[in-house]
TrEMBL record:
<feature type="domain" description="RNB">
    <location>
        <begin position="456"/>
        <end position="787"/>
    </location>
</feature>
<dbReference type="InterPro" id="IPR002716">
    <property type="entry name" value="PIN_dom"/>
</dbReference>
<protein>
    <submittedName>
        <fullName>Exosome complex exonuclease RRP44 A</fullName>
    </submittedName>
</protein>
<dbReference type="InterPro" id="IPR041505">
    <property type="entry name" value="Dis3_CSD2"/>
</dbReference>
<dbReference type="Pfam" id="PF00773">
    <property type="entry name" value="RNB"/>
</dbReference>
<dbReference type="Pfam" id="PF17215">
    <property type="entry name" value="Rrp44_S1"/>
</dbReference>
<dbReference type="GO" id="GO:0004519">
    <property type="term" value="F:endonuclease activity"/>
</dbReference>
<keyword id="KW-0694">RNA-binding</keyword>
<dbReference type="InterPro" id="IPR022966">
    <property type="entry name" value="RNase_II/R_CS"/>
</dbReference>
<keyword id="KW-0271">Exosome</keyword>
<dbReference type="InterPro" id="IPR050180">
    <property type="entry name" value="RNR_Ribonuclease"/>
</dbReference>
<dbReference type="GO" id="GO:0000176">
    <property type="term" value="C:nuclear exosome (RNase complex)"/>
</dbReference>
<feature type="domain" description="PIN">
    <location>
        <begin position="52"/>
        <end position="165"/>
    </location>
</feature>
<dbReference type="InterPro" id="IPR033771">
    <property type="entry name" value="Rrp44_CSD1"/>
</dbReference>
<dbReference type="InterPro" id="IPR012340">
    <property type="entry name" value="NA-bd_OB-fold"/>
</dbReference>
<dbReference type="Pfam" id="PF17849">
    <property type="entry name" value="OB_Dis3"/>
</dbReference>
<comment type="similarity">
    <text>Belongs to the RNR ribonuclease family.</text>
</comment>
């Protein structure tokens, strides 16, 4: 059956065109219920159990995705009209609901109501798209009721008051999310329910601590139409809000429209914006501009001291300049200085899940055992979040994850809900039976078909080896370096052929896509793929035949690339070396065996490549990487120290970088609109300012005009202190932007640039065992070589963008989890080991300074003013980066060495922290 749909659209030239599209309707679309006697039930997803079939509306999917992901919620119909709406409004949630629908372990079924002749609805005159879609959802629910003939209950789940009312009038069974969850008899599930909005059913006004005292605390956000007009007229300024790491009551917004940062002082002026939100800012009158960023450290316990401004017109709307809110010491009135402003609207939210712990609120529990609590994020830039829970006793001493739901202008805190008892939104659950069923049986061995494959080259006679951290089991890269008769070298990078075992659209692929990356903690690894793949089938271990995807160059002795080829391959590694073993071989002049010679030749080439890359402007930065020695029985840390980088590490890194660049060039040439690449945006002037202020104070002139200029300046930054150059490089690292994945069709070629590597093109190809981005790139490369067809997902740009966003989110969370693991083990290590050591001052503040401890790779605040006291007679010299107590003749300056005492204290229950004090 054919329907015609017509609409008008405006071209870029301003012409109005009428577009007519054919819309096909069918009568053979199955309902997905195994109990159905009419449809083909061979591929049914909905069970015939006593539980009802749930039809969810768009807002339920958008706002209750955490609940839907819980295994207690099943037998769910997701209509195509709902999927389309969710895709348009939130790609992250769309990817999550698609993953649920493709997970064979879950009973979620996608019903194409927009193409079924009995459920397709035309828009009526004067009907809004939202009302039309709500009507389509009711029509589909009603059809399910009739179609299944009462053999099972069909229930529409909606929090929309009007939609529920109309459904009831039309004879459709409908319930709110909360009422349905209550009927399941699992009180803990109610913690996952997002509180309804004001236009929803059963909206209950959630009071603050004193309901009678509720008043407007924040100004209302401007509607987008007003924000857009204001931006166009220059009244408002757009930018990303970044909260001060050491003072969460101060933020700044980089604004291109005024060419400077706009300072945002106090939570009142932040107006419910979170770190990372894209906001619209209104400049304050110049007599309210502040002189600069905060000069004091705000302690973790200082949150209650800060008070938000009330809305304009209230008695408390006078400008204030409190110590905590503005970070200025002894300043009574604001001074003319840098542009200051307030947030008037949110253009794009950056809400996600946050890791932290609860502190109970001083109020009695409500009916039904509901307790109100404040969640305190580990990231101190995030405000406290109010949640309701029925599990307060169980959660008080735990690390939990909380998601933000809303932030009303009447509420001092945002509202959220408890998600799970895990850190950093990391999925550490065991792999499901459906995922494991995708793996080949063990023991896996090379087949005759693998060797006979014309697209796979047999390289088993090549002297291939791997170099990895000690104890590495998931070996996904190997190398070879063979001299050629013409004096050149054949150099190969061989990467585990993961896509030979992970097929698009399978439960295994869906799981890997959602996890995004393996997570490396101090004492364990949380895998992206099951261990049979990571440690056996795909791991390029020594003396076993394995499948690989290879990039092979012919190089001159001067490391010039003569030619590049790409091929699927079969390899047999002759040695799996650790960095220490490889370095020892290269350093031992008595060893002249072929493998050691290969290592030395490869290292010689790598040094030339590295030097050439640095000459192009690549940065050699530094970070405080910490290494623990762990007790194999107790898993407690026995020793702690800075991670040592050797030439062997740099050799491997150099060839992995070269392989990634070569693959990026190949896939972009063949697929200019849908390649997954990795970019590193240049740091802004504002981001580099702290580094320049610090180096200027010590008489060091850094040129930041380009990455090349900065790299040369860092090379010249040497002093008598052996840690001096490393500290400067660590400070430079802190000023950098995050590198991110992106779809090539979303940006222009100049934006592809990788600042840190000084490379116009870059991607990730070399670690498919632990990164899903590399899996995608392997598929692109295979299609570029004509080995495999390009999966259909690459034709869906918005979905590719959504995947890139998820990969960036998962990558960031994995980094945070790794850091949290280091912090935890640091606290465990020093709990019974109070220590005196030397540190270097890296940031000066009016009430103390931030120090870096080189021996342990630890950074933290040292207070000069006792806790709980305000002000003090310490004076900050911003220009020379020095804090001085004039009457005592004491001063401390940037990069100065100081003696500190390190000890674990527990000022708040279940929140131990490492405290640094000056000796």
């Amino acid at each position: 059956m054919l329907q015609s749909k017509s609409f008008v659209r405006k071209t870029k030239q301003g012409k109005v065109l009428k577009v007519v599209r054919e819309h096909y309707l069918r009568d053979d679309i199955y309902c997905g219920a195994s109990i159905c006697n009419v449809c083909d039930s061979s591929a049914a997803r909905l069970s015939s159990s006593a539980s009802p079939i749930l039809v969810v509306d768009t807002n339920v999917v958008l706002h209750q995705i955490d609940l839907l992901e819980n295994p207690a919620i099943d037998n769910v119909v997701v209509l195509s009209v709902v999927l389309d709406e969710v895709k348009n409004k939130n790609l992250s949630v769309y990817n999550r609901i698609r993953a649920l629908c493709s997970n064979n372990a879950r009973k979620f079924f996608v019903f194409s109501n927009e193409h079924h002749k009995d459920t397709y609805v035309k828009a009526m005159t004067g009907e809004s798209p939202n009302d039309r879609n709500d009507r389509a959802i009711r029509v589909a629910t009603s059809w399910y009721q009739r179609h299944l003939g009462g053999s099972t209950r069909v229930l529409l789940i909606t929090n929309d008051r009007e939609n529920k009312r109309k459904a009831t009038e039309e004879g459709i069974s409908a319930e709110t999310v909360e009422s349905y969850v209550k009927s399941l008899g699992q009180p803990s599930l109610l913690d996952l329910v997002v509180q309804p909005n004001s236009g929803d059913v059963d909206m209950v006004e959630v009071e603050e601590l004193r309901p009678s005292k509720r008043k407007v605390i924040y100004i209302e956000h401007k509607p987008m139409s007003e924000i857009t007009a204001g931006l166009h007229r220059g009244i408002y300024h757009q930018g990303k809000l970044r909260v001060n790491r050491y003072n969460p009551f101060e933020a700044y917004v980089g604004s291109e429209s005024i060419g400077d940062e706009i300072l945002i002082h106090g939570r009142g002026n932040m107006n419910r914006a979170f770190d990372g939100d894209v906001v619209a800012v209104e400049l304050l009158p110049e007599d309210q501009w502040q002189e600069g960023k905060s000069r004091s450290i705000v302690d973790d316990e200082d949150d209650e001291d800060e008070d938000v401004r009330l809305v304009p017109g209230s008695a408390d709307d006078a400008p204030r300049n409190t110590n905590v809110e503005n970070g200025a010491v002894g300043a009574a009135n604001p001074v003319t200085g840098r542009p200051s402003g307030r947030v008037v609207g949110i253009i794009k939210r950056n809400w996600h899940s946050y890791c932290g712990s609860l502190e109970p609120m001083p109020m009695p529990a409500a009916d039904g055992g509901i307790a109100h609590a404040l969640f305190v994020s580990k990231d101190r830039r995030i405000p406290k979040i109010r949640i309701q829970t029925r599990q307060l006793g169980n959660l008080l001493d735990k690390r939990i994850i909380v998601a933000v739901d809303s932030w009303d202008c009447l509420s001092r805190y945002p509202s959220g809900h408890y998600v799970v008892l895990i850190e950093n939104d990391i999925n550490s659950r065991p792999f499901s039976s459906q995922v494991l069923a995708c793996l080949p049986p063990l023991p896996w061995t090379l087949s005759a078909d693998d060797l006979a494959n014309p697209n796979r080259q047999d390289l088993r006679q090549v002297r291939v080896f791997s170099v990895d951290p000690p104890g590495c089991k998931d070996i996904d890269d190997a190398l070879h370096c063979t001299p050629l008769p013409n004096g050149n070298f054949e150099v190969g990078v061989h990467i585990a052929d993961v896509t030979n075992f992970v097929y698009p659209g399978t439960p295994l692929d869906d799981e890997a896509s959602q996890r995004g990356t393996s997570v490396y903690l101090v004492e364990r690894r949380i895998d992206m793929l099951p261990k049979p793949l990571t440690e056996d089938i795909c791991s390029l271990r020594s003396d076993v035949e394995r499948l690989a995807f290879s990039v092979i160059w012919e190089m001159t002795p001067d490391a010039d690339i003569i030619s590049t080829r790409y091929t699927k391959s079969v390899i047999k590694s002759c040695a799996a070396l650790s960095y220490v073993e490889a370095q020892a071989r290269m350093d031992d002049s008595r060893l002249m065996d072929p493998l050691t010679t290969d290592l030395r030749n490869m290292n010689t080439l790598a040094k030339i490549m590295r030097l050439r890359r640095i000459e192009r402007g690549a940065l050699t930065l530094a970070s405080a990487e910490v290494k623990f020695q762990i007790d194999t029985e107790t898993h407690d840390p026995l020793d702690i120290g800075m991670y040592q980088i050797r030439e062997a590490n740099q050799m491997v890194e150099e060839f992995m970088l070269a392989a990634n660049v070569s693959v990026a060039e190949k896939i972009l040439k063949h697929f200019p609109m849908c390649s997954l690449l990795r970019r590193h945006p240049s740091p802004t002037k504002e981001m580099l300012e702290p580094l320049l202020r610090t180096t200027a104070a010590i008489g060091l002139d850094l040129d930041t005009a380009s990455s090349k200029a900065l790299a040369d300046s860092l090379d010249r930054a040497v002093g008598n202190d052996p840690y001096f150059n490393k500290l400067i490089r660590i400070l430079a690292t802190r000023c950098m932007t995050q590198a991110v994945y992106f779809c090539s069709g979303d940006l222009s070629p100049p934006e592809f640039h990788h600042y840190g590597l000084a490379a116009p093109l870059y991607t990730h190809f070399t670690s498919p065992i632990r990164r899903y981005a590399d899996v995608i790139v392997h598929r692109l490369l295979a299609a570029a070589l004509g080995i495999d067809k390009l999966p259909p997902i690459f034709q869906d740009r918005p979905q590719l963008t959504g995947i890139a966003d998820n990969l960036n989110y998962r990558h960031r969370n994995a980094q945070m989890a790794g850091r949290a693991s280091v912090e935890l083990h640091t606290v465990i290590y020093f709990r019974k080991r109070p220590t005196d050591t030397e540190a270097r001052i890296v940031k000066i503040r009016s009430n103390g300074f931030i120090v870096f401890v080189p021996k342990y790779g630890i950074e933290g605040p040292v207070y000069l003013i006792p806790r709980g006291e305000k002000g003090g007679d310490w004076l900050v010299d911003e220009e020379h980066q020095r804090v001085t107590k004039a009457d005592a003749g004491i001063s401390y300056s940037i990069l100065q060495a100081v003696k500190i005492h390190m000890e674990v204290v527990e000022r708040q229950p279940n929140r131990p922290k490492l405290e640094l004090t000056l000796i």
